[in-house]
Amino acid sequence: MSLFVLGFWGSHAEGQSPIFGEFVSDYIVERAASLAGALPLNEAQLADINSISDGVAGYGGLEQYKSADAGLIVQDGAFVAANPVDVNWFDAVRNNNEVFQYIVQEGDALSLIAADFGVSTESIIWLNDLKNAHSLSLGQALKIPPVSGVVHVAREGENIAQIAKKYSASEEDIIAYNNLPAGGFFSPGTTLIVPDGKIQLAAPVAAAPTASGRPFSYLPDLDGYYFRPTVGTLSRGGAIHGRNGIDIANQCGTQIYAAADGTVRTVSLTGSTSRSANGGYGNFVVVVHPNGTETLYAHLLANSVHVAEGQLVAKGQIIAQIGGKPYSAGAGYSTGCHLHFEVHGARNPLAKY
Length: 353
Known about the structure:
There is one protein chain. It is built from seven helices and 15 strands. By secondary structure, it is α+β, with helices and mostly antiparallel strands. The strands form five sheets. It has a seven-stranded antiparallel sheet, with no helix packed on it. A two-stranded antiparallel sheet has the order 1-2. Strands 3-4 form a two-stranded antiparallel ribbon. The longest helix is centred in the N-terminal third of the chain and has 16 residues, at 19-34. The radius of gyration is 22 Å and the shape is elongated.
């Protein structure tokens, strides 16, 4: 029976709902609505929502992701750049060998951004040529390297040995990371990632911790601390995009719950239909939790937000409803109804690392 269900569900096109999908999505919405009266939900109700299977709840389109040809590609897969007006940096897929662009949000600090992406603060400073690492501005676009080190554009006549020496790095590591031929040959203009490379500045930056491993995977796993914020299907199997975020697709209007106790730090609403509104988030809410972590809920339905900045919320309390219908007010960069859910400072319990 499970094989039949999976095959039937996977056969429909994006934005369409088969008969079975309509039945399931109606059930999910009714199930969520039946729980809406409790603010917050009790533990049994929370467990009930969390027990609903990912594979049978989806409805509506998912976010679109800019392919490599949407921006400037200097070397196949080595560097991706695009106009921040046209792209949602939070929802761009971050690959291991890409330079990712991140839009600075309220309350951000360079050390926190670096820690979340698993790179050193120096790496971000070097790549962005920052003059004052302690003065970020709201909406500022930062390039984030895929690994701690240096991003280098090769000049005419350079070879791998010279580059490795320049940045006190390993020739073998540069060759391996950039998938170069055994001799380390490359063309002028090629953008190379130099793992663990260092730039000697006239005014050295303050020492900063370096996180290792895949982005976000080093974060603490707070098992059981966060509750699933809504019901629906995990897009792309819970693959991470943005800043430790995942998407949960369901019908617009589906209830969204606070993932843990906390205080609402930000409620950002926009009446704009622009896809770049609020950096692509559209309407969003940020909740700060007692353990110092944050959760973010984006692509919220216009006029559905039930909380205000400074308000205390309890785990399971309704905070908004799913939005994201393309070109609707506050949808941001989205092609269908879904929640974009991020966890800052800890592992996202729904993410695939």
